[in-house]
Specification:
Growth Hormone, Chain: A; mainly alpha; about 80% helix; about 450 residues
Length: about 450
């Protein structure tokens, strides 16, 4: 069949809209919270370090439960887990809106994290069910574009809401988006293909998974912020014991929560590796640059937001293009090219003149965004399509987990480098390390060219 003649019927378009609305909601919720933290710290009369738990609690719950919900999606259906997640997220958003204390808001954010984990664990698995395999790249491209648009719009939306009203309205916007996704998804989202054999959910593995990833993230955060070394050592010891038990148990499972079975597929394992390293590089740059712009270049918060915007805007343009190119070009080559452009953009920021004009920063940020967009879509397509259809949930969960691990590692390294270097050298140190990670991701991506491309492959 000619790929250019493949078209969606309206029902399929609407099913995609349900997934994209949920993605938009979860991304917006993350970006607007970062902007709102100073306001929340002031209103609740807590320290900034305490206020950060509004964000950290949410992210920690997602990391600890993402793979477990992906496994439940493989067993009970991605559609069911997705709709349950939306329902939890909308209810928790209402609870956030009605919160009257810091700890009430934090508890509501924890519940919100469970809902977000449900959605994130199966969203790419649903996209795989909705799109024909020949044009899955286009679906992933649209997905990446919506993420980039939401990330770019988040700070502006948050600023506008906080300028016009209280922080409570930041959570109100989730409710209509969530309800629309819930109604459309309930009517139109597809069910999983019939399974030859249904496996049982491994509750012990789910607990071990939560403890392993929780201890890993918490240990990295503690190390980054110079917490008590004895306490960190205890956490690492527990992580080694529980993590070893968890992995050994997964090796014996037919459909493990941590998809070690999928990691035996070379192109899947390479794609997960390049995903972790690429997101590490991205966070090294994105977290350190605002400090550099404020403390060294002396831009204000509004100007910094505008200077960072070309990055997601460039991703908006290149992600859908990469989604079409992956139908004709090997994803390993596209990913390698994308990381080469990304590394070039990071290097251009590294050699930024001492007193740059704004336009001199803008084109460099755009170059980074172009490279990352060219890489991300083909990489996501490879991760999802290289797994058997019945294991799409596991692949989707690993895709999200790789992103979270990369982002956590990146922010941890930023905190570590900020302690090691004086203020004027911190951003350059972070950018130099980001360049190395980007080059590493590009090399790993190029190695995938030795494997057959899974794009369009049917199981």
């Amino acid at each position: 069949m000619n790929k250019e003649k493949i078209a969606f019927i309206p029902r399929q378009y609407l099913a995609v809209i349900a997934v994209l609305l949920a993605i938009m909601m979860s991304v917006l919720d993350g970006t607007i919270m970062n902007i709102a933290l100073p306001t929340l710290a002031h209103d609740f009369d807590v320290t900034p370090s305490t206020a950060i738990w509004i964000v950290n609690a949410y992210q920690l719950v997602i990391t600890m439960t993402l793979l477990s919900f992906a496994s439940l999606g493989d067993i009970y259906g991605y559609r069911r887990i997705f709709l349950i997640g939306i329902s939890i997220f909308v209810g928790a958003s209402l609870a956030c809106t009605l919160s009257t204390s810091f700890w009430m808001l934090t508890a509501a954010r924890v519940i919100q994290g469970f809902g977000a984990a449900c959605v994130m664990s199966v969203n790419t698995a649903l996209i795989r069910l909705i799109y024909p395999p020949q044009i899955l790249g286009r679906g992933m491209g649209v997905n990446a574009m919506v993420v980039a648009v939401s990330a770019a719009a988040g700070p502006s939306i948050a600023g506008s809401i906080l300028a016009l009203g209280s922080w409570h309205w930041l959570f109100v916007i989730n409710i209509p988006l969530g309800l629309a996704a819930l109604v459309i998804g309930h009517r139109l989202l597809p069910h999983n293909p019939p399974a030859e054999k249904r496996h049982k959910f491994d509750k012990i593995s789910a607990i071990a998974n939560a403890l392993t990833f929780g201890l890993l993230i918490y240990s990295l955060e503690g190390f980054a912020h110079s917490e008590n070394r004895d306490f960190i050592g205890l956490q690492i010891a527990l992580l080694a014991i529980i993590g070893t038990f968890f992995i050994r148990r997964q090796l014996k499972q037919e459909a493990p929560i941590l998809p070690v079975d999928l990691m035996r597929i070379p192109i899947f394992a390479l794609s997960i590796g390049t995903s972790i390293t690429s997101f590490t590089a991205q966070m090294l740059a994105m977290v350190s640059l605002p400090f550099f712009m404020q403390n060294v270049l002396h831009y204000n918060a509004v100007e910094i937001g505008l200077l960072l915007t070309p990055w997601p805007l460039a991703t908006i343009l290149t992600a859908p293009l990469a989604g079409r190119l992956v139908e004709r070009v090997h994803p390993g080559l596209l990913g390698g090219m994308g990381m080469a452009v990304f590394a070039a953009g990071l290097f251009s920021l590294y050699i930024l003149p001492e007193h740059p004009e704004s336009w001199n920063i803008v084109w460099r940020m755009a170059l980074c965004g172009m490279g990352f967009g060219l890489f991300q879509t083909p990489n996501n397509v490879t991760i999802v399509s290289s797994a058997p259809t019945r294991r799409s949930g596991g692949a989707s969960g690993m895709l999200g987990t790789a992103r979270l691990l990369g982002q956590t590692l990146g922010t941890t390294l930023v905190a570590l480098l900020f302690r090691m270097f004086p203020e004027g050298d911190r951003a350059q140190a972070c950018l130099f390390l980001a360049i190395l990670f980007a080059i590493g991701a590009g090399v790993v991506s190029s190695i995938r060219m030795t494997q057959a491309s899974p794009a369009g492959k049917k199981y």
